[in-house]
Amino acid sequence: MLVDVTWVKVLDNHRLEVMFEDGYHGILDMQPYFVCKPFNKLTNPDLFRTAQVGYGTIIWDNGHIDIAPEKARQQTKPIKH
């Protein structure tokens, strides 16, 4: 099931707080992705901070880098309240 990302906030340590259209809310650690292109470019803190919602997912560098929304959903750990 494809669920779009609706909101993202950049956190420290290459993590993102992410909200999905179904209300799922959690933390996505991007550091494991840095071993692969094009995500290795996100080790640059200035580039990592460009994270935003676009095309229903998380994009960086004006859409030149993105992560599939289903992969983001799968890897996002829920925030415990």
* Helical run tally: 2
Give the overall form: globular
What would you give as the CATH superfamily? Answer: NE0471-like N-terminal domain
Written as H for each helix and E for each strand, in order along the chain, the element string is: EEEHEEEHE
**How much β-strand is present in the residues?**
35-45%
CATH class: Alpha Beta
| Total beta strand runs | 7
Low-confidence stretches: none
Average pLDDT rating: 96
Helix content: 10-25%
CATH architecture: 2-Layer Sandwich
Lateral arrangement of strands in the main beta sheet? 1-2-3-7
Largest sheet: 4 strands, antiparallel
CATH topology value = NE0471 N-terminal domain-like
Q: Give the tally of structural domains.
A: 1
Tell me the Rg in angstroms. Answer: 12 Å
Note the quaternary state here: single chain
Summarize it:
Pfam families: DUF2442. The protein has 2 helices and 7 strands. With 81 residues, it is mostly beta strands.
What are the main properties of this structure?
single chain, about 80 residues, mainly beta, NE0471 N-terminal domain-like, four-stranded antiparallel sheet, three-stranded antiparallel sheet, 2 helices, about 15% helix, globular, NE0471-like_N, DUF2442 domain-containing protein, DUF2442
Structure commentary:
- The chain has 81 residues and is mainly β.
- It has a single domain (5-67), classed as 2-Layer Sandwich (NE0471 N-terminal domain-like), CATH 3.30.2020.10.
- 14% of the residues lie in helices and 36% in strands.
- The strands form two sheets. Strands 1-2-3-7 form a four-stranded antiparallel sheet, with helices on one face. It has a three-stranded antiparallel sheet with strand order 4-5-6.
- The radius of gyration is 12 Å and the shape is globular.
- The chain starts with a strand and ends with a strand.
- InterPro entries: DUF2442, NE0471-like_N.
- This is DUF2442 domain-containing protein.
- It comes from Galliscardovia ingluviei.
- Pfam families: DUF2442.
